[in-house]
Amino acid sequence: MDAQPRPSYPGDLTDAEWALLEPMLPPPVAAGAPRKTDFREVVNAILYLLENGCKWKALPHDFPPEGTVRDYFHQWRRSGLWEKIHDTLRSQVRIQAGKGPEPSAGCIDSQSVKATRTAGTRGYDAGKKINGVKRHILVDTLGLLLAVVVHAANIQDRDGAKLVFEKAKIEGTWPRMQRVWADGGYAGKLIAWVSSFCGWVLEIVKRNDDVKGFELLPKRWVVERTFSWLSNYRRLSKHYEYWNETGEAMIHIVMIRVMVRRLTQKGPGTTIA
Question: Across the chain, what does the average pLDDT equal?
């Protein structure tokens, strides 16, 4: 008797979303036994873990075995596949939004989050009073991820930003990139360093000291929105990962989820979140 399809979970890929992702995953190998693992279910399992914040071993039993899911996650992380898929989708989202495929401007910021006892890296952010890590991201003007570095929270923003810019300059090919906006924590010698190393203008968007409470800053609000997208996924509520590279891969996968949803929605009223 054929196995009945399992009931769907809220985070499962739709048929349209899977049709977008499937061609980017490795094809079956011609030699050897046929592949038995359903890659759609592997991706659904990873999305389940991200959305619900569970342990790998707590994945429901109607997904492929936990060890299989985890092995594919790390195999694709080490090969750079998650980043490749992410960058391909980012260009498609930008084109859909009427932008060029590659950015001409961006915004940088960091988010401090607590690290659990299973994390391999942690440091104390005295400003935020958080013992954990910083997720340091560079995004484009749509809030789409360009580069991410996870590092100890005790590293100052100006020093952490150099790690992000170095990664962006090495991995990114953005000939149109000219300007990056940042808050006052990035002022000082970093401006000249970015100009020399990247050839970009680091523009500081300062907060009005006369305004009390929250203030929506021009240009910089897009990176805050990106952090809010990430916070919708419970696995990212804290830093659980031993390797920082694992945390970076999970951020890429969240943004892949965000973008496939955007690309498969129809109508001008759709949003990325």
Answer: 90
